[in-house]
UniProtKB/TrEMBL annotation:
Main localization category: membrane
Entries under InterPro entries matching the protein: Fimb_usher, Fimbrial_membr_usher_CS, FimD_plug_dom, PapC-like_C, PapC-like_C_sf, PapC_N, PapC_N_sf
Keyword vocabulary terms for this entry: Cell outer membrane, Fimbrium biogenesis, Membrane, Signal, Transmembrane, Transmembrane beta strand, Transport
Family: Belongs to the fimbrial export usher family.
GO biological process, one term: pilus assembly
GO CC annotations on file: cell outer membrane
Organism: Haemophilus influenzae F3047
Highest taxon, organism lineage: Bacteria
The protein's name in its UniProt record: F17-like fimbrial usher
Location in the cell: Cell outer membrane
Residue intervals of the PapC N-terminal domain: 35-176
A Pfam family annotated for this UniProt entry: PapC_N
UniProt GO molecular function: fimbrial usher porin activity
């Protein structure tokens, strides 16, 4: 966590900062430095307690939010409690249940359980650990023998640390209005897209929908009405390593077929795993003859290194690499000898780690758009990592009129990655039943040395293969219109073949080739599509040429097209572009300029002119603004045939929470709300924009089950507002909304010139507290109290410089807390009466 923010230097803080400079130097002094109390104006004679400052990293009693690191591995943030230890005459760390849980130690390491009510000294409860609190870094370092820590992947986060967030609601909106007008007609189109949600406890409610409307001066108004996409409740469960969904949702097409259901789904979520376990990487096994150092390389680069004891070892927490290439495992023994072996690796095959699995189980009523069909449907899928190079998968769909089962695999080999699956289906219609099969295969190989990527995909269908959606939709229509005959689809897919080749040629540019062929049962026709593209750069000028050809024998449609484009940067934020295209008997050319403006490039624009071979000309302009409360765009164009169009669009979010309503950019299913009282104007480090007038802001996206750093930049806040901290951590559950509260206080700019009845001076470093025991400020030189945290204009303050009642005094005050434009300190004289005289 970062240090609490220090505001710009002002005269009111001069002496206070000097005093803190001395205090900080004590905190980092040697183990036992002696400080002469007489140096501080006779402090020892007055009973000032300096003993705590004789210790290294001295800390005052109280509670502090801090990062915890065990054996130099971050465990997250927790509130630490320090209390005075009479034996050591210093504040020491207490073992709380929260800290004990975060340490994640073996039971044998803990001699005494942590307590919420009483202070259990951490050093006594866990005698094998060394606790070091870094006061300047707000960090607790814990060193303990590795054998006493619970074994987890290196980046494991305990489910007990996952946070459910707060109660809140949001609406993401996407609004677009478009008007087209010529000499004879005018058309208006309106679209509204909604993604909304609300969170209560651990449950998340989500809804997706849209509304479109069209109006023409010829055909009148038309609307499809409000289209509901998905509406569901969802909650995760650590025991299931997944989540439960209730309502209207779509199943996944990762294995098998995707369709709409109204029902329930239980599915695994890989994001719950440690980051090193989420994507595929092989498990490495070997034997070390002595204490050895293991180094793993890929393409010559070191990607992992660890020391292991003699005997068998297993490495199962490799991060998934974004590159292909076998892994070279080097074992360096203690005598200097080095052995090595290779492990095949490819990230192109759909593989899971050995022993890992993914599952989905869904059931309910089939749903097609807004219609819910009476047919019950069950779908189940499972993937399992069998070996380093082999993952198997299977699935099934069951419905009264439909049955399907699937089996497949993913395989990584030295000559490329293969995946294949086969689906057997049985579809029953009103007058007949069909049984069919679908075969699907993929092949991919990457030649990293040559910059070549080749992908091939093949689908093959039998004549009588039907999908669930085709079967249930036809049967549904047949029931609605009794007596009518609904024919089966005429064009039933027979085969589809796709090939793509990408070639990076370095300074010679990039080459791309793709082709696709589709055939259908019931016709001898087929459709073909080919595309070739080449791109490169000459100095600052970028260029690309593309050739496209399509041939659909079924509709007897042929099309050839050529595209040529150029782009030239005009500085860092602007560019000039030109395009030319020719399609059969049509050609067009366009010249444009676009770029961004503003200190944060929040404004963008585009201007263009175009003309085709028929002398049709058009001028167009567009512009946009990206702000912290939404994105806005507008466009306009006009041609030489008296036609014009204009459009405006906006998108953003509206979030409601306990501190009010906040506007922001579009948010994801999981996001964070920042609140800092009096913090308006402070920037948001993890998002766009700054805190609004009420001190609220939005971080639009957070990563679930991972440590997220949420921070603010106090630069734009008021000068007399201090932040206790400017960064914190959260570990959100999926779809959770988090309220991150940054504590602030206003420097009240009040100085008290204290005097004692004995004409003495209140010692330097004395602390002042209000009637509630809250810290108010320190006493500096000459008995000057810097009361920076006064919350009331009148009351009583207690000033303390020792442990005895004789080392305290009190005084009543009445001050003016109103702000002034010059932010100048206000000084008051006060007589501080010793507490013993009041008794």
């Amino acid at each position: 966590m970062k240090k609490p923010t220090t505001k710009p230097f002002t005269r009111r803080t001069l002496a206070y900062l000097l005093m803190l400079a001395f205090y900080t130097s004590w905190g980092y002094a040697a183990e036992e430095d002696e400080f002469d109390g007489a140096y501080w104006g006779g402090g020892s004679k007055l009973g000032v307690d300096f003993s705590r400052f004789n210790q290294k990293n001295a800390v005052l009693p109280g509670e502090y939010d801090a990062e915890v690191r065990v054996n130099n591995v971050s465990k997250g943030n927790v509130r630490l409690r320090f209390a005075d230890n009479d034996e050591t005459q210093r504040a020491e760390l207490c073992l709380t249940p929260a800290l004990q849980e975060m340490l994640d130690l073996e039971k044998s390491a803990i001699k005494q359980q942590g307590s919420e009510n009483n202070c259990v000294w951490a050093k006594d409860a866990i005698p094998d650990a060394v606790f070091t609190y870094q006061t300047g870094e707000f960090r607790l370092d814990v060193d303990i023998p590795q054998a006493l820590t619970v074994s987890h992947p290196r980046d494991y986060i305990s489910p007990t640390r996952w946070q459910s967030g707060t109660t809140a609601a949001f609406v993401n909106y996407d609004v677009n209005y478009y008007r087209y007008r010529n000499q004879h007609s005018m058309n208006d189109n309106f679209y509204l897209g909604i993604r909304a949600g609300a969170n209560i406890g651990s449950w998340a409610l989500r809804h997706y929908g849209s509304l479109s409307w069209n109006k023409s001066n010829r055909s009148g108004s038309y609307t499809d009405g409000y289209q509901r996409g998905e509406t569901y409740l969802q909650r995760d469960f650590a025991l299931l390593q997944g989540d439960v969904t209730l309502g209207d949702f779509y199943t996944s097409d990762e294995i098998g077929e995707s369709f709409g259901l109204r029902g329930i789904r239980v599915a695994s979520d890989d994001r719950m795993l440690a980051p090193s376990q989420r994507s595929f990487a092989p498990v490495i096994r070997g034997i070390a003859n002595t204490n050895a150092n293991i180094t793993i390389r890929q393409n010559g680069n070191i990607i992992y290194q660890i020391a292991v004891p003699a005997g068998p070892f297993i490495i199962d927490d490799l991060y998934s690499s974004g590159y292909n290439g076998d892994l070279l495992v080097e074992i360096q023994e203690s005598d200097g000898k080095v052995r090595s072996f290779s492990v095949p690796f490819s990230n192109t095959a759909p593989l899971l780690r050995v022993g890992h699995f993914r599952y989905r189980l869904s059931g309910g009523k089939y749903r097609h758009n807004d219609d819910v069909v009476e047919d019950n449907v069950m779908q189940a899928t499972l993937q399992y990592g069998l070996f380093n190079s082999l993952t198997i998968n299977g699935g099934a769909i069951a419905s009264p009129n439909y049955r399907a089962r699937l089996f497949g695999f993913g395989l990584a080999t030295p000559i490329g990655a293969f995946s294949a699956d086969s689906t057997w289906a049985k579809a029953r219609f009103p007058h007949q039943t069909f049984k069919g099969q679908r075969l699907h295969g993929n092949y991919r190989i990457d030649f990293n040395t040559f910059g070549t990527n080749i992908m091939l995909s093949v689908y093959r269908y039998s004549r009588d293969f039907y999908r669930l959606q085709d079967t249930l939709s036809i049967n549904h229509e047949a029931k609605k219109y009794t007596g009518f005959y609904f024919p089966l689809p005429y064009l039933v897919p027979k085969g589809q073949y796709q090939l793509s080749i990408n070639q990076n040629m370095g300074k010679w540019g990039d080459f791309y080739l793709s082709g696709q062929t589709s055939t259908y049962w019931g016709t001898e026709g087929e459709s073909r599509e080919y595309q070739i593209a080449y791109s490169n750069r000459y100095k600052r000028l970028g260029y690309q040429i593309s050739l496209l050809q399509t041939h659909d024998k079924i509709s007897d449609r042929r099309e050839k097209a050529v595209y040529l484009s150029f782009s030239l940067p005009l500085g860092d934020d602007h560019s000039l572009s030109s395009t030319y295209s020719r399609q059969s008997d049509y050609s067009s050319a366009q010249l444009g300029v676009n770029g961004s403006l503003g200190d944060k490039r929040q404004w963008n624009y585009g201007l263009s002119v175009s003309q085709d071979g028929n002398r049709y000309r058009q001028v167009a302009a567009n512009g946009g603004f990206q702000s912290g409360i939404g994105d806005y765009r507008a466009s306009f164009s006009q041609d030489n045939q008296h036609s014009r169009q204009m459009g405006i669009s906006a998108n953003g979010s509206i979030v409601t929470h306990q501190y009010g309503v906040t506007l922001g950019t579009r948010v994801s299913d999981g996001f964070a709300i920042i609140h800092a009282k009096e913090g308006r104007g402070a920037g948001i480090e993890s998002g766009n924009g700054s805190l609004d007038y009420f001190g609220n802001g939005i971080v639009p996206y957070v990563s679930p089950y991972s440590i997220n750093y949420i921070g603010i930049d106090p630069k734009g806040a008021q000068e007399n507002v201090d932040f206790e901290a400017t960064e914190t951590q959260i570990i959100p559950r999926a779809n959770s909304i988090h309220l991150v509260d940054f504590s602030t206080h206003k420097n009240t700019m009040i100085l008290f010139n204290l005097s004692l009845p004995s004409h003495g001076i209140v010692p330097m470093t004395a602390t002042a507290q209000d009637e509630k025991g809250q810290f108010v400020g320190y006493v500096g030189q000459g008995g000057m109290l810097f009361a920076e945290r006064l919350t009331k204009s009148e009351g009583r303050l207690n000033v303390k410089w020792g442990q005895n009642s004789a080392d305290q005094c009190e005084f009543d005050y009445r001050v003016d807390l109103s702000e002034n434009s010059k932010l100048q300190a206000k000084t008051y004289d006060a007589l501080c009466t010793p507490v013993k005289n009041r008794e």
